[in-house]
Amino acid sequence: MFSTFNKIMKKLLLLSILISLSTLTSCVKKGCDFSGPHQFQIPVNLNPAKDTFRIGDTISISSTFSEEVFELKTQRAYTLDDFKFFPETRITKWETHPDSIIIDNTALPNFEVLIDTIYDYEHFYFSFGEVSLTGQYKHQNGFYDLKYQLIPQKEGLYWFGQSSCLFALGDDQDFSGKCRNHDVDGHVRLNEGADNNVDFIKYNPDGSTSVFWERQDEKFHVFGGYCFYVVE
């Protein structure tokens, strides 16, 4: 009799576990069964898309998109009204030597920056020496907008990166349709996903593959990377 009671209790316990799992599964919104944060795609354009610029040339950067922003994990658009995307611009200079590559993360001052005062976007100086442009998009009439120009002043091989610090600074923002327990991140799609001269930094001086090349999806298709030379 005791053995029969134990069997009944085990079956009841198993049934209880199955019901609990079923309840938890049914609580997950359709299309929300993904890991990590929402990943909103932010379009950016660099023009002209040349591999070599001369000192004094003008490089135009623009990013304009509607409040209906495409999200990569769910493959659909969401309305993001008065959202903070925390855009950031960085420029790195690559100096190749016979046995090494020196990467200078303080190269933004090698460019004159032209930006209209209607935009909240300006230089930010880190305590460890790096420099970037940071701020916010201008949000007006259902669109987000950011435009500025770079004029190179010094020769070299450069990596330009236009990214979003959304995950670090505004990942808890809410919007209609947001999946519960998922944060928010931003991926920059530069020049509609072109290769953006990634092969310029493919190899180290010894012929081995560079770390940037190995991380090209991140450096060029998440952080909106673009490589180019500046000559006299």
How is this fold's topology laid out?
Layout (H helix, E strand, L loop, with lengths): L1 H25 L11 E10 L4 E3 L4 E8 L1 E4 L4 E4 L7 E11 L2 E5 L6 E4 L5 E6 L5 E6 L1 E3 L2 E10 L3 E9 L1 H4 L14 E7 L20 H4 L1 H6 L3 E7 L1
Parallel strand pairs: 1-14, 2-15
Antiparallel strand pairs: 1-3, 3-12, 4-5, 6-7, 6-10, 6-13, 8-12, 9-10, 11-12, 13-15
What can you see in these coordinates?
Helix content is 17%, strand content 42%. With 232 residues, it is an alpha+beta fold. It has two domains: 1-30; 33-231. Strand 11 and strand 12 form a beta hairpin. The chain is globular and about 55 Å long. The chain starts with a helix and ends with a strand. Mean pLDDT is 88; it is low at 18-26.
Query: What spatial form do the alpha-carbon principal axes imply?
Result: globular
- How many alpha or pi helices? 4
- Report the radius of gyration as a whole number of Å: 24 Å
- Classify the beta-strand content into a percent band: 35-45%
Major β-sheet profile: 7 strands, mixed
Oligomer: single chain
In round numbers, the mean pLDDT is 88
Low-pLDDT stretches are 18-26
Query: In terms of structural class, how would the helical and strand content be classed?
Result: alpha+beta
Q: Approximately how much helix is present in the residues?
A: 10-25%
What is the number of strand segments? 15
Order of helices and strands: HEEEEEEEEEEEEEHEHHE
What is the terminal separation in angstroms? Answer: 95 Å
| Domains, number | 2
Tags for this model:
232 residues; alpha+beta; six-stranded mixed β-sheet; 15 strands
